[in-house]
Amino acid sequence: xxxxxxxxxxxxxxxxxxxxxxxxxxxxxxxxxxxxxxxxxxxxxxxxxxxxxxxxxxxxxxxxxxxxxxxxxxxxxxxxxxxxxxxxxxxxxxxxxxxxxxxxxxxxxxxxxxxxxxxxxxxxxxxxxxxxxxxxx
Length: 137
Fold this sequence. Notes:
Elements: E1 28-34, E2 47-53, H1 54-61, H2 69-72, E3 73-81, E4 90-91, H3 95-102, H4 107-117, E5 119-123
Antiparallel strand pairs: 1-2, 1-5, 2-3, 3-4
């Protein structure tokens, strides 16, 4: 008896990678925090900045704590203004500056602190050169 062979095609599945979200297609706001415990004008507090997605931040602040933090913030990176104040170029604070300002250098704890105590600084279109390179999440 002759044997017959059948070729069964293997199912192929193509997976499309998830779309990359960039700051350009999100409604981003700056959430700022300046330590109120600075006693003299000689001391220049660090003004820390966290980028938040406008709609999700509003829902989160409205009490919906079920929203994943990754959807509220555009990045877990905290920035600081190079000079005292609430405008100018943004840079990265040192670990020491983070610990002095927030009492910790753990990203997750800092994000929670900023979401609780930070103040919105209006809608922003990130000015050229404000952040070096394109931030992707």
